[in-house]
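In response to reviewer comment 3 from the previous cycle, which asked for concrete evidence that the modeling workflow produces usable outputs, we include below a single protein chain processed end to end. The sequence was submitted unchanged, and the resulting structure tokens are shown without manual editing.
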Amino acid sequence: DLIERFGIERRVYATGQRKGMLDPFQDEKSEDVDRLHELHEDIFENFKTHVRDRRGDRLKAAEDTLFTGDIWTGNQALEVGLIDGLAEMRSEMRRRYGDKVKFQRAEVRRGLLSRLRRGGMSAIDPAELVSALDDWALWKRYGL
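The workflow returned the following structure tokens.
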């Protein structure tokens, strides 16, 4: 056993009957696998209901085709009604809302401390601070 070979002592502190469910270091229990399948089924049914409710009559294929867990290309998704069209985001936004549409690049959100660390903890660069505040305001606008 790998754990024993490397002298690792396994400790689990848990409360509740299912806290150790599907523990990869224990023998598999059929009741744990059954519970996992129940959860998967519930999630899958919720997903199908969500797709049906949102797409409605636009779905063009039978459920046994749509809900297989398969991966769809854009063209395939269009063909079966999972999407309304294929487009590049910027050109589609301009088509819908006109040429005055402005795009702001949303970069990976970094905290102020992370930004300071990049500069070696030197004095705060005013431009960097303004950039951090701009990013914060943009993310805040969308509740992120």
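The first helix runs from residue 2 to 5. We consider this sufficient to address the reviewer's concern, and the full set will be provided in the supplementary archive.
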